[in-house]
Amino acid sequence: MTTAHESPASEAQISVHWREEDYYQPPAKFIGQANATDPGIFRRFDEGHFPDCFKEYADLLSWDAYWHTTLDTSNPPFWRWFVGGRLNACYNCVDRHLAADRDKAALIWVPEPEAEPTRTITYQELYRQVNEFAALLREDCGLRTGDRVTFHLPMVPELPVAMLACARLGVIHSEVFGGFSGTACGERIADSGSRILVTTDGYYRNGQLVDHKAKADEAVRTANGLGQPVDKVLVWRRHAGQYASRAAMVDGRDFFVDELLAEHHRAVVEPVSMPAEAPLFLMYTSGTTARPKGCQHSTGGYLAYVAGTSKYYQDIHPDDTYWCCADIGWITGHSYIVYGPLALGTTSVVYEGAPTYPDAGRVWRIAERLGVNIFHTAPTTIRMLRKLGPHEPDNYDYHLKHMTTVGEPIEPEVWRWYHDVAGKGEAVVVDTWWQTENGGFLGSTLPALQAMKPGSCGPGVLGVYPVIYDEDGNTVEAGSGKAGNICIRNPWPGIFQTIWGQPDRFEQIYYAKYCRNPKSTDWRDWPYFAGDGAVQAADGYFRILGRVDDVINVAGHRLGTKELESASLTVDQVAEAAAVPVIDEIRGRAVEMYVSLKPGMAPTADVEHAVTAAIEREIGKIARPKNVWIVEDMPKTRSGKIMRRVIAGISNFADVGDVSTLANPEIVEEIRHHIQGEKLAHGEVPRQLTREEADEIRAFGRDA
Ligand code: WTA
């Protein structure tokens, strides 16, 4: 849903209010060792060298056959990269590192219970496990190149093993985030046409051994109901030989992986040489309609893109200990825990549990213990770590050279804590903007060569040329102070190939809006519509304001939820903030702010006033919130995003929708009781929303 029809003002006429921030320079020590230090790299990747510049990324891989065409645009917008090339993604992430690095840790898995030992999987061991599981998939499940398999796996090392085993066979994997419900998993099984489900009996999260297998039964039932039978459910066991779930194993359908693997001991499966454009995996993401979109990613283009961006933007060297504290069930984990780091032959840390379990020092203890020198996470985790342990990093002897923030806009206040406290002022920070659909980063600073600016992701990455368009397709100039829709003018190798089974929807959602000529085979006529609002400063840096449906239009002024939240976070006591729209008879929409406080802070009227004052100061009176609500905690997804639609629903006395996938569903009733109680006590008379209003509130924010 765009805001265009809500207001006669075009995007370009709506100003964005956000203060300019000062630059931070990368530390000299970082520059001294960085992968990209020659500014000539910008020339190599400029538009004059497109698309051949991406040869540099593709050459990081080992090809069975080199390609003849870098980019084929003959059937837009279905771009084909490295046409004629053949390779195997698993070979590139595992086999080719054996000669020099067989004993090096590929994965270090950290279980959530601290008493349980860390598990180190060398490249040699990974090779063994992947081969054996590939043999199982091929022989026991009959899987062949092009088939789809669904995984519903949490953060266990078996997940990367399963992904790589599929890649070895040319089988398309589709991992469903472990925190999703069985029903959500079943819908994705059906959509992808998988007849095999790979799951686990349980995993640890916040000190609990979660019963996960129960969801598999629900998933199979749902898939069956949608006409997709599931032949086999493969169940890994969290503790070998012990079954941790209360759900019964179904005879003839459910199998313990450890038992089946016994038959494949020492198996060797030759990697299948795949065309560069063969699909590698599907990753589902939600859109504005109920049906999830299976983003289909390619083998050659995707792997080249994540390898290249891992090298230059994550600054991964083979001897780094790299930790991306995200979930492999999201695109970030696929690209920047598994495929990118392993393609470069580095050591990638995988952590099972919650970042703040058993306390706010856990993340920093892991960093100290393992000698992590590159750390990567999302603003929500950063805010949570800051809230629960603002000085905790001081207690641990770890040293980072590089840090990443990804997935949401980060408030400058929070950015500064990440840089100064979590990074001890020693690390370069990149704010990487991109999406499930994109395969890898779209916007970021190149860490040794471009200064950081809190709250801005930076310019387009190498070989990616973003532009901001208004609703009519006019370019919104850098430095104009106007927001619009950020688009990418060109294809890049990591772009998804299509929405699985829905090519028309693919074209419609991402290309129709700004396509200049549907008959043209020139990529310049096909800008990619990202669905994010953004503003570009005079220096070329982009600030991402959030999804175009994350914007609150108050009396014709476009207010990014993030601007409001950022302003609120300048109040000392505030730990987290979320802005939601409430239907307002006079101004169309008004803003309500929800804030949670740092430990030990009292929820007083003074804090509420301070938040309002901060918003007026940072943005202007126009953004003055109708209410500021202080809550214990925010409703969050398992990946840590605040579910704004849930609080928007509460603020509007509307349906909050499905809350079953929340990390903390119990908080919803508590907030509803508190907020609606206060509203009623203040004499607010709830009214039935119109259908359009209800739809808007339900669609507010992007949940998963
Ligand atoms: C948002 C996550 C601001 C954006 C990789 C995008 C960001 C959506 C950033 C995609 C960032 C991602 N700054 N916003 N650095 N990174 N986003 O598909 O709205 O889970 O469209 O991919 O997250 O979320 P997704």
Summary, kept brief:
The protein has 704 residues and is of the alpha/beta class.
Overall description:
With 704 residues, this protein is of the alpha/beta class. Helices cover 29% and strands 21% of the residues. The chain contains 21 helices and 30 strands. Strand 9 and strand 10 form a beta hairpin. Helix 11 crosses helix 12. The structure holds 5'-O-[(S)-ethoxy(hydroxy)phosphoryl]adenosine. 5'-O-[(S)-ethoxy(hydroxy)phosphoryl]adenosine binds next to helix 12, strand 20, strand 24 and strand 25.
Taken from the alpha-carbon principal axes, the silhouette is: globular
Distinct small molecules: 5'-O-[(S)-ethoxy(hydroxy)phosphoryl]adenosine
Sheet/helix structural class:
alpha/beta
Residue stretches low in confidence (pLDDT < 50, at least 5 long) are 1-17
Q: What is the CA-atom radius of gyration, in angstroms?
A: 24 Å
Q: In angstroms, what separates the terminal alpha carbons?
A: 16 Å
The fraction of residues assigned to DSSP E strands is 15-25%
How many strands appear in the DSSP assignment?
A: 30
Average pLDDT reading: 92
Query: How helical, in percent, are the residues?
Result: 25-40%
Characterize the main sheet. 8 strands, mixed
Specify the number of helices: 21
Strand order of the largest sheet: 12-11-8-6-7-14-15-23
